[in-house]
From TrEMBL:
Lineage top rank: taxon: Bacteria
Summary of the function given for this chain in its UniProt record: The SecYEG-SecDF-YajC-YidC holo-translocon (HTL) protein secretase/insertase is a supercomplex required for protein secretion, insertion of proteins into membranes, and assembly of membrane protein complexes. While the SecYEG complex is essential for assembly of a number of proteins and complexes, the SecDF-YajC-YidC subcomplex facilitates these functions.
Record keywords, A-Z: Cell membrane, Membrane, Protein transport, Translocation, Transmembrane, Transmembrane helix, Transport
TM spans (from-to): 6-24
Organism whose genome encodes this protein: Litorisediminicola beolgyonensis
Coiled-coil intervals, chain numbering: none
Name of this chain's protein: Sec translocon accessory complex subunit YajC
Length: 98
């Protein structure tokens, strides 16, 4: 009787294990990669936001914000985690007072 009850739980355990390896684990890996990309942002990088805006990082602020220049003279502040992709990594731009 106890062997039969254990046999009923084996498929449930297998389904959970399959879901973990196919869904949960890859999502966690993707989140870690995104966080690593966001932490590596620096001035001069061309980025795409989750809203689809493309611009150049002008300033990385300590309060989890990034200032992105969309066009000449048009700057917006975005939360770092909303950066979807880095199009090109460049050398940091020189400061204006250098």
């Amino acid at each position: 009787m106890e062997g039969n009850a254990l046999a009923q739980f084996v498929p449930l355990i297998l389904i959970f294990a399959i879901m973990y390896f196919l869904l949960i684990r890859p999502q966690q890996k993707k989140l870690k990669e995104h966080q690593k990309m966001v932490d590596a942002l620096r001035r001069g990088d061309m980025v795409v936001t989750q809203g689809g805006l493309i611009g150049k990082v002008v300033k990385v602020k300590e309060s989890n914000e990034v200032e992105v220049e969309l066009a000449e003279g048009v700057k917006v502040r975005v939360v770092q985690s909303t950066i979807a992709n880095v199009l090109s990594k460049t050398e940091p731009a020189k400061a204006a007072n250098d």
